[in-house]
Amino acid sequence: MARGSLAVSAQQLDPLTWFTGRVVPLVYAGLVVLYGAFRIPTWFATSLPWLQPIAVALCAGACVFVYALTRPLRPQLGWAGAIVTVLIAGAGLIVSSIGYTGVDISIELWWAPFGFALAIASLAPYLSARRVLALGGVSTVIVTVLAFWLVDPDVTVWGPLSSMVIIAAPIVCGLVAAVTFSFVLVSRMAPIIEQRSQLVLPLKTTDAAAEQVERLRLARLSGRAVPFLVGVAEAGRITPADRALAGQLARRLRDDLVTQSNLTWLDSIAQDSRLVVVDPEHRAARMRPAQRIVLRSLLRAVLDTPGADTSSLLIELRGRPDGATAVAVSMDIELPEGRRIMHLAPYYLTLRTEVDDLTWDASSLSFTSP
Amino acid sequence: MRVRVLPRDVASSIITGSVASLGWAIGAATLVLGLPVVLETTARADRLSAAILPSGLLVLMLVCLGFVVWRARIWAVAAYLAVGFVASTSYELTLLMALPGSIDTQVYLLNRPAVALVLVGLAARSPLAGIAWSVLGFVVSTASTVLVSVIGGVPFRPGYGPGFVVVISLAAYLTLWGVQVVQRRRIPNIEELEAENDRLAHGEDLARRTTAAVHDTLLNDLSIVMNAPDSLDARVRSRLRHDLETLRGAEWLDTSSRLTMVDEQDTSLRNDIMRLISGYQWRGLSVHVTGSGDGIYRLDPAIATALVDALGAALENVARHSGAAVAEVELVYEAASITVMVTDEGVGFDPTQVAGDRLGIRASIDARIAAVGGTVQVWSSPGSGTSIVMTVPVRSILREHDAPHHQELG
């Protein structure tokens, strides 16, 4: 369990939270700017004061970069994005170090290690604890040594070991916080999700309203045939007219039953909306309850999208050679892309937890139901 | 299976707990990183011996922090704050006695325990609780510095550390709170969707029952009327009345009043099967049963009903379509399932060429068995008969069915 918890990111496990929680890196960027501004008086004690705002911009920019990389429809944040983030923030720390070279500053109040730490921490929801630890660990050693080399000769209050520790402390704390957060969250959440996904929903055993509806349907189906058969049973004789009527009733009844039998849960949605379902192989019936739930929620969200042409919504299901079902959904939506994404992304992310190969472009969405 | 997404309140609680948990990690890192600073700073002042007590106090706070993580209870956090208050005060006073000038230039060295005291959000399960704990930690930390100021006769200088940490904590918890508010507005309510799906599945189950029942009664009876002789005998008339009564009562739709009759000698399933077979024998179809024995296998009532109904539909197909006069019914008992195999040597058919409007297997057998978690396999080809194998899960086994004696001997 511990090894598994190190290998999965919080976002992989719970994409919905980190869709709405995308603002976290922006908050970190704001804190970097605030702390940098708090130390503005020290900027003018240096010979190159313009380096500090550049460094602040780089550290804050690293957090904004994480924000940009984790937009809902983008792929998961990988090594490349994380390394670039660390390089940007590391550049900020080094630029700040260069700016403070030759100046006896209070290194315990130096904003740059804190800015670098927040950039590392902003990766926590999107990278596994193992990756944060590896990337953060290596970068912490490198930037701390470089910053120490640039700044320490001018520090008089502290010894070299203390200077090194004081420079490293915010970064180490940020790294520890990021790794702890990712590990604790995943190790607590993963077993609950696993147990939950294994849990079979108990079929509702009492629903008087549904039973009443079904009794009405039964009465409608049998309305003509039952009186006829009662009469035949009472008479004990069959006339040619009886045989003809029985054949006619049987054909109608069979048609009704076949129609009902061919209806899937998707057709029941189509009955209440203008959704067009193309499912010649009745593949919808093979989808698991969880898949039905997330697809139904997405379709409902699409149908509720303001500016959507609901008559253009089409869903098509086709079998694949490996037994899986390929699903394609398409629709015309006039909504601007940003608003459309914000409206549909939660449903898209929920769907992604239950299906494979999910892709989404301007007007269509496709996935595979394993 | 349920959706692999946690309800938002559960996810929020776990995330808040995780944010709170990182507090102890930062607190521990702060205390550990304070040790070399204490040692080097006292050594540079030739007062290394004065580092023993402060170092011991940092270690004591680390141990207390570990205890809080282990117990994770409110009383443990309160005890940590109390011990931390004493340790932090003693730490500062000891260092101030050894390094009097540190209050002016090395507040960072003095306020390490005070910073760790602010990071006590461990017990928080909601953002508001996290804020409350952080503020309480800050108050205790500040009180410790005030006490040091009074006892040591030095200026009140807590440094930026504790205040900075409490501001960060407040920002973190307020952000979390904001995220959770947005989530409640934007994120689909999974529980509600699952409940809706449950209702629809229930409706589909009822529709499937109706389709199967109407197919097995009305449609078959109409077929009888179309093909029977001019005069109906008493047995056919009785069957028509029985079928009509079945439809009139529609008891198969009443899911609320289903009772599970349990007793050691429960033989209702066997009786139902034998009654069914007897009915077909009256209609001219000889049914040979093999594999029955003295075992007692308990099935859920819904499964038993589905099995009997599906067996009836299979025998109906043999009687009406196969042209065979004999059907074999074999029961196979396994640890977790019972398999019923219906075989005939009739005309057979190509299963891949069954018309879409034929419901005899799809609705009356396949759908019934699948709805209760069982499986159906059909083997047939034109001219070589048909085998239908239906397997359903067993709830419990009261007594194992004895293996056939030829197996024991073999």
Report what the structure shows:
The complex is a heterodimer of chains A (about 375) and B (about 400). Chain A has about 375 residues and is an alpha+beta fold. In chain A, strands 1-2-3-5-4 form a five-stranded mixed β-sheet, covered by helices on one side. Chain A is elongated, with a radius of gyration of 32 Å. The longest helix of chain A is centred in the middle third of the chain and has 39 residues, at about 160-200. The mean pLDDT of chain A is about 85. Chain A has three domains: about 1-200, no CATH class; about 210-260; about 265-370, Histidine kinase-like ATPase, C-terminal domain (Heat Shock Protein 90, 2-Layer Sandwich), CATH 3.30.565.10. Chain A has 16 helices and five strands. The longest helix of chain B has about 40 residues, at about 190-225. Chain B has a five-stranded mixed β-sheet, covered by helices on one side. In chain B, about 60% of the residues lie in helices and about 10% in strands. Residues about 255-265 and about 405-410 of chain B have low confidence and may be disordered. In chain B, a hairpin with a 3-residue loop joins strand 3 (about 325-335) and strand 4. Chain B folds into three domains: about 10-185, no CATH class; about 200-255; about 265-410, Heat Shock Protein 90 (2-Layer Sandwich). At the A-B interface, helix 3, helix 4, helix 10, helix 11 and helix 12 of A face helix 1, helix 8, helix 9, helix 10 and helix 13 of B.
Query: Could you tell me the number of beta strands of chain B?
Result: 7
Whole-Å distance between the termini of chain A? Answer: 26 Å
Strand content of chain A: 5-15%
What structural class do you assign from the helix and strand content of chain A?
A: alpha+beta
Radius of gyration of chain A: 32 Å
Based on CA inertia axes, which overall geometry of chain A fits? elongated
Counting helices, strands and paired strands, the structural category of chain B is alpha+beta
Which strand order spans the largest sheet of chain B, edge to edge or round the barrel?
1-3-4-6-5
Main β sheet profile of chain A:
5 strands, mixed
The H-and-E topology of chain A, N to C, reads as: HHHHHHHHHHHHHHEHEEHEE
Q: Looking at the structure, what is the overall shape of chain B? A: rod-shaped
